Amino acid sequence: MKADLKWKLVAVFGILVVAIYLVLSKPVKLGLDLQGGMSIILEVDVDHVIQTQYKQLAQDIRKKLKENHIDVLSVKVNKDGILISLLDPTHTDKAFKVIKENFPQVDVKAADGLITVAFSQWELDRIKRLTVQQAVETIRNRIDEFGTLNANVSKLGERRILVEIPGVVDPERAKAIIGKTAQLELLEVIDTAFSKEELLKKYPEGLPPNTRILEGVPEKINGKVVKEWFLVKDTPIVTGSQLKDARAAVDSRGKPAVNFELTDEGASIFGEATAKLIGKRIAIVLDNKVVSAPVVRSRISKSGQITGDFTPEEAADLAVVLRAGALPAPVEILEERVIGPTLGKDSIEKTLKAGIFALVLVGLFMIWRYAISGFISVISLLFNGLLLWAAMVFLDVTLTLPGIAGIILNIGMAVDANVIIFERIKEELKRGKTLRVAVEEGFRRAWDAILDAQITTLIAAFVLFQFGTGPLKGFAATLSIGTVTSIFTALFVTKLFLDIVLGGKKSLKYAF
Amino acid sequence: MRNFLDTPPNIDFLKIKKQGYILSTLLVIASLVIIFTKGFNLGLDFTGGTSIQVRFVDRVDIGQVRAALRLVGLEDSMIQAVGTEGNEYEIRVSLKKGKSSEIVEKVKKALKEKFGDKFEIRKIDYIGAVVGEELRKASVYSIVAVLVAILLYVGYRFEPVFAIGAVIPLFHDAIITLGIFSLLGQEVNLAVIAAILTVLGYSLNDTIIIFDRIRENIKLRGKKNLLQLVNQSINENLSRTIITSGTTLFSVLALYLFGGESLKGFALALLIGIVFGTYSSIYVASPLVVDLERFFRKRGQPAKEATR
Prior knowledge:
The complex is a heterodimer.
Chain A: H1 3-25, H2 32-35, E1 37-44, H3 46-67, E2 72-78, E3 81-86, H4 92-102, E4 106-111, E5 114-119, H5 121-146, E6 152-156, E7 160-166, H6 171-179, E8 184-193, H7 196-201, E9 211-216, E10 219-221, E11 224-226, E12 229-233, E13 238-239, E14 243-250, E15 256-262, H8 264-276, E16 282-286, E17 289-292, E18 303-307, H9 312-324, E19 331-339, H10 341-394, H11 401-430, H12 435-467, H13 470-502
Parallel strand pairs in A: 9-17
Antiparallel strand pairs in A: 1-7, 1-19, 2-3, 3-5, 4-5, 6-7, 8-12, 8-13, 8-16, 9-12, 10-11, 14-15, 15-18, 16-17
Helix pairs in contact in A: 1-10, 1-13, 3-5, 5-9, 6-9, 10-11, 10-13, 11-12, 11-13, 12-13
Chain B: H1 17-38, E1 41-42, H2 44-47, E2 49-56, H3 62-70, E3 78-81, E4 88-93, H4 100-115, E5 119-127, H5 129-157, H6 160-184, E6 187-188, H7 190-221, H8 226-258, H9 264-298
Parallel strand pairs in B: 1-6
Antiparallel strand pairs in B: 2-4, 2-5, 3-4
């Protein structure tokens, strides 16, 4: 054997060992469509956060202007910013300066007593980024708190979050834990009524400033379902961010409830407030719904209880969610996929069958058409499969059902390069060239066509990878990895084995 | 026998190129007409909605499933059999009927009432309106992106005439595949789009291999008798064209026959695409090169950029 062949053989053997090591080192990651599980795509309502921030900013600006003795006629918050009109238009320049100096994060435009304030693009992006990041962390915390779920939570694009939970899941429960905003607020109740209209009727001149109306949870009283409506102070006394702990418990009637405990800071604020509110009601509000509104009997500082029509499971989940913290903004479920465990198993069995069938069919054909060389190309094909698998382990690619389809498709495509080469060799042999020359010629001449052909497949796979969702990304991945590895096996490995077997012979029966 | 086509045949493929053009044009027009009149049976990925796949312990017919759904007012949902064993169905409910949680609860309740515990929910998919719309757009964009990228790549590697000759048949393959899907009422979902993208990349292989041979022959003999040269190139490459497509078809066929329900549409799109891709590389791409070349030469394009 020639020296360079020996080295090539050593190289191929080395690659073989590394590939086998990789394949044995850890199993390839299975997609949810194969192992069963649930995946959810959520969209974070970042506009909601921006609105809240504008409201806060409006208050701050009003305060700052007042400090600087600039009288404000009105401050309006809309979806793109804040519109301030001044009482005295001659103060415009001064107001502009005050805002500019104190609030560097905003763009200000001013003319004739009208000032518009909006967050700069940079600030908007920052808010969006932080909000989504915080939502991801909160969901992760909740899932960690829950304990049993081995989920993957990741950011998807600008404002989306992908949550993947493998295994058997109760989708409704998972959604309740992941998707609940869980914004807890304790608010001072000003007035109540048993319908919204009734409540509004009490204030013919409009609601008092800085208040809002909230809906209660329907309750059964003496066999009748009633729902209370509440007029509450806009600014909460304390919120969920001041929670220290939340635990499932039972209330005085033995029904499931959630006990919560405030942080020291929260407790002192709440204690002070409740001391002034004895005899009045406070509303315990969860995600803009009043879950209960107890009358304050005495100063409360540290702990409280959320009661409601919970099942024990719901109470436990609510405690988890409250402990892990509220989402910075409401989320909407855009997409949800739940796959039972049996379907994935079925898919694996079926595609395995298809794969074996394809391999046998292609392999037999290659041997039939190209004899010894065909046999060598089948060995290369198997080698290609091994490399593909090893690359997937190495690159941490998730194997999905379309991914398996990609591998099977690859069986048929990977031999294409060898077909092109072998056909060329046959052609050269027909022209009377010796075996050795024909083989060299075949490999040399086919190179261009093979490269061009494979690159166009890679182009398609690349685009697919860009736009595809989860499972299809798996197809794009196996298709492109397989295409690359097949170029190596078809050109290098096949050539090497051919050189060894034919060993520079001028002719060999059944070589092709 | 195993050496079939070892000696290149001498088939005058281009003699019937006119008929080839006519056939292809008719197929494309027919496909477009079907697509625009009949439309597609769009999958959940594009329409949005909730899909629930249920397997029953015993055989159940579609009427029984629908009767059960009538109990919860969902009888107008789309119900289609999955597989051929008659015990598995996909129930698809439109977005208008509500959120997935409610729908799933309702369907579970209905099935429980009618079939007791003798069923298993194997899969639930919910796609919101936003995502459906996005995926529809993304599909169109990605097909366009692939076509443009291929045009650029082939244009870079071959002469412009070849690039146009290679890309036009791709439209042909994609449109006919979609036309057949529309005709059969086969569901067009993301996987089918993925298959079409793959076909765009793959069916070009045949074309490129023929073009490569044409390029080689031009180098040897010049462009003088291009028609005959192209014809000869096709003939010399016939075994390659048939075998490479053949081995890939083996794989796709295996997928179609044994790969399970979830991959059927995907495999079918590949099957149709590859068959038409092979046909078009011989009957559309190659004659186009000849005619485009003639066309440009008549218009006074310098013929000297013949070989690069």
